[in-house]
Amino acid sequence: MALGLSAGQKAADALALVPQLVTADHDPDADRRALGSLCDWCVRFSPAVAVDGEDGLLLDITGTDHLWGGEDAMLADLLERLARWGVPARGAIADTAGAAWALARYGEPRFGSGRAVVPPGGQREALARLPVAALRLDEAAQAQLPRLGLHRVGQLYALPRAQMAKRFGLAFTQRLDQALGAAGEALAFRRPASPWFARLAFFEPVSAPEDLARVAADVLALICKRLEGEGRGAKRFEVVYHRLDGKAFAVPVGLARPGRDAVRLAKLVAPKLDVVDPGFGIDVITVHAFAVEALAQGQARIDAELDAAEALAPLVDRLVNRLGEGRVWRPDPVESHVPERAVGRSAPLAAPAAARPWSPDLPRPTRLLKRPEPIEVMAKLPDDPPLRFTWRGRHHRVQAAEGPERIGQEWWRGDFDAAGPGRIRDYYRVEDEAGGRFWIYRQGLYGDGDPPKWWLHGLFG
Amino acid sequence: MPGSREARIEALRGRIAAIEAGTRTPTPVLPFGDPRVDSHLPGGGLPRAGWHEVVGEGLEGESGAATAAFAALLARPRAEKGAVVWVLRRSDLYAPGLVNLGFPVERLVMVRVRDEAEGLSVLEDALATPGVSVAIGEVEAPDLVAGRRLQLACERAGGFGVVLHRRPYGGPAKGATGSAAFSRWRVGPARGRAPPDGLGLGPPAWRVALERCRGGRPGAWILEHSEADHGPHPFRVVSELADHDLAPAPPERLRRAG
C-alpha cells in the first residue's frame, strides 16, 4: 500500500504504478476455505471463534487472555504467528465485537504494530476519531453520512437518536449501539462454545504414532474425568491434533449411547490416526465433547448379567467408527404398503419405532431387488399369472402361483400422475419347476393405453 | 470275537471324544428334533457355540435367497437369546421376509461391508461380543485362517455363526476349500407341498445336504419350514435323500427324488 495500491483498483492502473506487479485471479472459494482453516487454528486462543465476512475472524477471548499474560501479549502472539506464515493481519481487542471490528480495520496504528487494545469501557473514545465506515453500516447510510458533513464516528454521539433512526433506518442506531456496548450482538461461532473441552500442550512436539495415541488417551482421560465428576456422558467426541505450522487434524469418534470410558474412546481413536500427518510435530491436542447428557453413576463392570443393549454398545461403536455412519443399521418398520418403502433404517440401539410391525402373514421375499428387473412372460389370460417367464436369460416354468396382491402407489406422496392406475402393481408369488420362488408383479392395467409390463421384484427363500 | 471288536471300537470312540473335548464339559447342542437328521450330527445336534457354512446350489450361490432363509431358520433358536448381526455385501436382505419365517428382526443389526476381508473381520468381532448370540455373514469363501479365527471367537463368547457363501452376480464360482467350520450345508430350493385346500403355495421347502460335519455323517434331506412343537428347530423333515456315506448322489438323482 506504500506503493499506492488499494483494493478495488483496476489491474491496468495498478500495473502502471508498479510494473513488476504479480497478479492472480480472485478465488473466493479458496479464500473462504483458507479463512475456515485459519478459524480452526484460532481455537488454540479461544474456543469461540466466528468467521466474519470475507476477511475477518472474531474471537471471544473472555477468560482466556490470562494464559498469555494479558490481552496485549495474546494479540501480539497471534499476529506474530500469522506474520510468520506470511499472513498479513491486523487485530484489535475491545469490549464489543463492533469496536474490535472497527479498530482492526480503521484503527490508528493501521500500518504500525498492527494491533490495538482498548481498555475496558474505552470504546467510546477509541471510536470517536474513526471514519463512519467503521460502524459496519449499509451502503446507503455510508454514502449519505459524509454528504451531511458527518465524517467521524464521534460526531454521531451527540445527534438525536430518533431522527437518525428515522433517516437511516433502525440498523444504523443498532450498529452504533453494538459498537459502543449499549446493545448486544449475537455471533455465529463456527464451533459452538462448549464447556466440555480439554486441552493438552506439550513442551516438545510429538510425532510418533504411538505418542499420538497416548496423548489422545491422556486428553480423553481429562475430559472423561470431568464428565464423571458431573455425572454426565457424551455421545460424540472430537480429538483435534494441532500441528506446529497451524494445520489441525480432527478425529471424530461417536458412541451409540452416552459414555465416558476413556480407555474405550482411546481404542476408537487409535485406528483413525492415519488421517493425522504430524509433519514437524504436534504441539497441542484438544478434545471437545458434544451431545452431553446426564449419565447415571453406573457400576463400571459386572460381567455376569449384562443388559443386552449395554453389551452390544461397544460392538456398535467399533463398527460405526470403522465403517461409517450409514453402514450399520437396524431395519425398522415403516407404515407403507409399497415394499421398497416399508423398511426404514435406524441406529442399532435407538428406541424401537412407533410404526406397526410387519405382518407375518403377508408373503414377502427374503431378498428384495433394489430395482425391479423386467421379465418376459407368457400368460394364458391377461389377468392370469404367467405360465413361464425369462429372467436374466434363464427360462422358468411356473408350476404354482399365488396372488394377486394389489399394491397401489401412494398418491399423497407427490404428483398424482405418478400414482394413477398405470402405476398399480399386482404381485404374484410363483414357484418354478426347481422350487425357486419369485415375487413378480404386473404394472398397469389392460386396455388402458400402454400394455402392462411384468417385473421381478424379489426372491423367496 | 465280533462282540469284543464292537466293544473295542466303542471304547476307542469314547477315548477320541474325550481327547476332542479336552477338559471341557460336553457342549450343549441344538437338536433338529428328528432322528433322521440328528443321527448324522455328533451329540444329536448342532453345538451352540461354533460356526457353520451354508453353500448355495446353482443360482442360489448368487441370489442367496434360499440360503438366507435356511440360515435364518437354522439360527433362529439362538437368535431369540440375544442380538443378531447380519453382515452383508449388498443390502438386499428384506426384513419383512424374515418376519415371515418367524425371525426376531427387532434384534437384528445389519452391517454392510466393502470387501471380503472387512466382512470376515466384522463377523469375527460380532461373534466375540458377549451380547451377540448369532452372527451371519455373506462372504465368498473364507480361508482356513479366517475360519479358525471365527471358531476361536465363537468359543470365547459362545456365539453361533453362519457363513453364507455368496458370489457376486455373474462372478466365477470359487471352489469350496477346506475350512474350519463345524459343518457345511448345501442348500437349494425344493418344490413345496401344495397346501391342503390346493390354493396358492405351501410352506417353503429346501433340498439340504450336509456335506461335511466334524464328528458326524453326511446326509441329505428335504426340509420344510414348519412351526413344530418337536424340538427347537423350525424344520420338518419331508424325506430323506440318498445316503452320502455310501455313495455321493449325483445331482440329477436328487432332483428326481425331490
UniProtKB/TrEMBL annotation, chain B:
This is Protein imuA. It comes from the Bacteria. The lineage of its organism: Bacteria, Pseudomonadati, Pseudomonadota, Alphaproteobacteria, Caulobacterales. It comes from Caulobacter sp. 602-2. InterPro entries: ImuA, P-loop_NTPase.
